[in-house]
Amino acid sequence: MKLKIPKIPKIPKIEMFGIDIIKNMLFFTLFVFIFLFLLGVFVTPSIKKFKINKKEYYITQHQLNKSENLLAQKTAQYQKLFKENKRIIFALKREFNKENFTMFAKKYMKIKSIKDKNISVYENNFIKKTYIVTAKLNTPVDFYNFVDASKNYKNIIKIYFPIVFKAKNGEINLLYKLEHFKVK
Amino acid sequence: MFKLIQYFIKETLIAFYKTKDKYIVQKKEVKNNKILSSENFEFKEKEFIKFINSCFIENTQTYISTIIDTFNQGIVDSCSHSKYKELGINLDNIKILCLKDYSIFIGLYEINQFQKKMKKFKIDYIFSPYLLIDLNKKDTNNSLYILLTDSFIIILIYEDAKKPKYSNIYHFKLEDNIDKTTSDEENDIDTFDDIDNLVDDIEEIDDIEEIDDIDDLNEDIDDVDSLDDIENMQTDQNDDSNIQEEISDVKNEIESLDFIKNSIKDYYENYSDNFLEYGYIFYEDEMSNKFITHIENETFLEIKKEKIDILSIINDLALKEINV
Amino acid sequence: MYSFTKANKKNIFAEDTILWLIFIGAISSMMIFFSLFLVTKSYLYKKDIKTFKQQITQNNKQINDFSKKIEFIKKEKILYTKISVNNELLKDGVKNLLDLIPDPITLTNIKIEKNSLYIYGITPRQDVYNILLLPPLKSIFTDTKTNFYQMDNGWYSFESINILKEDK
User: What distance, in Å, lies between the first and last C-alpha atoms of chain C?
Assistant: First the structure.
């Protein structure tokens, strides 16, 4: 059975003031639909995305600035600290040289021997080498001066007990424990 | 590709010509070279312009065509410029359309004036009325073709059945109350010496008594009767408009005969030695056999009459133009 | 080719149709362009955010680094200070101790330990020792023991053992 195609009624043409009203209204409707469609599908989501990303951008930028500031701060702090304590830092890096120490102590005492006693780890970061030093000096004042001078010696050394002064033939035989500290 | 698109496009063809103060219009709707509809109208000028505008609104592919009936046009049986020079036609003032091996020319001034005057009608195509004959020509050699309308009569003579050799056009003098401007334009053409197809103005027939001169031309007694009828009609005051029409009809007939006679004479004198063998007359509304007999007597030819639809031919020409 | 004139231009669409199409097209393209613009900007923002975040982690790493280094330097300083103080105290202690010894008494051997002190010396009379040296020793140390040995020349050599017991 053949289907009869129904006759599409012709759209009447209303014209006012020389403008085809129906045609223009249809175009207007089409425009509105297209406009709203584009608005909803393209414009609005992209505005949303844009806003979110912009916000995140500024937040992250702010974080970065903070982090940069902190870094600068820390760098300055470190540099200042390093500068202030340069001598100590370098001193703590140096190995102990017996000859050098002997030369240094020459002013105050005549070093007879430096005996290695012990090596241990001190406070996780440092290596403490213990020596027993025997020396000859004339008066205890030399010893005091020696201790004072050791402040400026290029190694970090601690003078510790036992300390033995033995008088012999007008000289004093000195024995003391010397601890040398170095970074690990 | 263009042809493909044209398959889907509907074209509206409007052909018109003007008689007296009316515009006779034919609107044809065409799609893929098939005629969908054809309607004929008669409008006054304002109605016609409204009609044109509404057609444009309905379909942007609307083409408006008409014929131009200026004196200053003709056919030359060659496309070459040397032939024009030979005939003494000045090439600077004319526009030439070459159709295979013969050409139509028209005065530039006339065509521009016509376009200006008809600007309000938004005309696309302007054709020469000679084409109306040329598209309906028969296969016979040495043939005389006449096209007769209310406003003009044109003649084309073909020596070779396919190539026209002689062309001539004549406007009928219009009544006083109608469009003087066209007649002024006709007078202006007198100044163009170079055009050799001008017909001498026939003197106005003021008195019916002068019809007696024409009597000499005719041998048929019927003509005397018709003239008597006219004399009777003139006295009857009630049938004034009909009388006016019939008078103008008769005037036209008389002028036509004169024109035909002069044209043939011109042809024999200047164009060809061969005698004409066949004659055809194209008309639109009606053609009295009496008139045909007059012509036959005048030309010594058997005149076959054929009714043509001028507007339809114009629209067909327009369609051809579009499809080129 | 038959006509004296060429046809006027015919639009495929009526003028108002063309106007509408142009208008709709313009608005549509503007909207699409605008949303594309926003999408591009969003993408650029995202890219920058990524860069920023990378930079932040890098910075944090460096900050940590510096913090550790700073802490370490502080430790080093503390160590040095401790040692300095220790040395100083030690020197002062030894000095004070040796200054304690009165003139008549002469030391032969003195052994200073962390919590003990052994003094060996010669004194002309016992009471010189007992009056001059013993009281300070007693006050400093918890246990004090002295042994005297008579010498040939009438002086006494003494042996002083002093121990400091730490109370916990």
Answer: 130
